[in-house]
């Protein structure tokens, strides 16, 4: 039976940890850098002031998609995003699309949960 891709990743991670532990004892270390790859919808979440982000989280918690809809307008007011190469109008419509996805899938609870996590991401980005 062939080992799966996940097993290979786990083995590679274990080898890196073991190498780091050996390196730590001999005063040479291994630096491991992890970088999150964001999709276009996730990267379109604006960096807002903290109070605005908390309000959007509150709105998303009780009315799925409403906080995301409000955050789309902060992009038009100059809030920066992780999509610097895209036009402001495109980022605005990406946020509107995210809000519509949250609203339309809230019926089956997926959109509501997504909406809450989206609001939490807004607060996390605001605190950076």
UniProtKB/TrEMBL annotation:
Residue spans crossing the bilayer: 52-79, 91-118
A Pfam family it matches: Spec3
GO-annotated cellular components: membrane
Keywords linked to the UniProt accession: Membrane, Transmembrane, Transmembrane helix
This protein's record includes keyword Transmembrane: yes
The organism's place on the tree of life at top rank: Eukaryota
Topology term for the membrane: Multi-pass membrane protein
UniProt-annotated location(s): Membrane
PANTHER family xref list: PROTEIN STUM, PROTEIN STUM HOMOLOG
The name this protein goes by in its record: Stum, mechanosensory transduction mediator homolog
Organism name: Capra hircus
Lineage: Eukaryota, Metazoa, Chordata, Craniata, Vertebrata
